[in-house]
């Protein structure tokens, strides 16, 4: 069973990867990295981020397949 994460925990992970908060549009918070391409959007506040959303964030951050990064999320 996968550990559930709150949006606050996901934001901490995204920021620890070096991404910087750019703007918020409604409840969507956008983060960009100074050298990596693309942006990551996290809906905040959310008590439990859905597993599909977590997978998308991992894919966008290029964390899938890296050991020791966040909870175990399989790419199917």
Q: In terms of per-residue confidence, which ranges show pLDDT below 50 for 5 or more consecutive residues?
A: none
Q: Span between N and C termini?
A: 14 Å
Biggest pleated-sheet summary: 3 strands, antiparallel
Task: Spell the H/E element sequence.
Answer: HEEEH
Q: What's the CATH C level?
A: Alpha Beta
Tell me the number of strands. 3
| CATH fold assignment | Metal Transport, Frataxin, Chain A
CA-atom Rg in angstroms: 12 Å
Strand content of the residues, in percent? 15-25%
How many distinct domains?
1
CATH superfamily membership: Hypothetical protein
Structural class: alpha+beta
Count, helices = 2
- Mean pLDDT across the residues is 86
What is the 3D form? globular
Strand order of the largest sheet: 1-2-3
């Amino acid at each position: 069973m996968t550990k559930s994460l709150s949006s606050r925990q996901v934001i901490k992970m995204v920021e620890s990867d070096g991404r910087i908060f750019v703007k918020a549009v409604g409840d969507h918070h956008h983060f960009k990295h100074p050298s990596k391409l693309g942006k990551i959007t996290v809906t905040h506040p959310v008590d439990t981020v859905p597993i599909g959303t977590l997978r998308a964030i991992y894919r966008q951050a290029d964390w899938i397949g890296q050991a020791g990064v966040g909870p175990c999320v399989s790419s199917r």
